[in-house]
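Demo today. Your pick:
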Amino acid sequence: MKKALVLGAGGFIGTHLVRRLRKEGFWVRGVDLKYPRFSETEADDFIIGDLREWDVCREAIDCRFDEIYQLAADMGGAGYIFTGENDADVMHNSAQINLNVLEACRRRNSRRIFYSSSACVYPEYKQRDPHNSGLAESDAYPAAPDSEYGWEKLFSERLYMAYARNHGLTVRIARYHNIFGPEGAWNDGREKAPAALCRKVAMADASGEVEIWGDGEQTRSFLYIDECVEGTIRLMRSEVTEPLNIGSEEMVTINQLAYMIADIADKRIVLKHIPGPTGVRGRNSDNRLIAARLGWRPSKPLRHGLETTYAWIARQVELARQQNGRE
């Protein structure tokens, strides 16, 4: 039986990835600070531990794994990343995790490792136009990410590639673009735009008001979790050594995203624009390279994923209301 290790297995993407690997017949170990928040982990073994600590990494990587997926990071949505209040923690915590993980892999001869980078590595100057035609992988340099989170991700990409060159590791790197779906953060301050808006619409009256940070004309593309996991596994098992985008090419404004969710919920909403962190003005994924290298690209429409995600978050909102009513 093949063995896989998922670091960050208590998080959103990690939970779904563990589930997929188990369905494929892998024996899976998960590691995280916590168990998954919304469901029981399907990992065969789960270590609760802090990967910033060397002893935890040594315990987690105690043998040679066939596949290691490094998703663990200090991250969140715009409300966490762009205020500037968490910059030191974001950079220190994530960099320390990656330094420990790579050294433990080298010592245990676990050579095939996937690293989850981010579209936040792309330069701010390439993302000032809300009609962004798409960020190609080559656009990452000259480097000028818009956040310390992006700078750390870019540094860690180079760290992984250096270990590949110097120590013979087989490294695969994906730049994720705004992944969303059920079982993700939706009300803890780290949620991203789709989950935050699903929550706001679910809590609004039939013709209620929904708050939007900024003017809402900033643009993004959002990728449903199932396609993220599919692209991750295809990249992991490929011969591609360069970073690849894993994201959708269906770009929408945040205003359009809110109205789409309201339509799914069968509600008429009024948008109220308020001050708040918005990040770059326009970001979209250019998927030409992943199509050329893997013969595959994400293809499901945004609405497909939003329908499932909204239904799940609406249930969470109702459960929270019931709980509050009993207290």
Notes: The chain has a mean pLDDT of 95. The longest helix spans residues 302-326. The first strand starts at residue 3 and ends at 7.
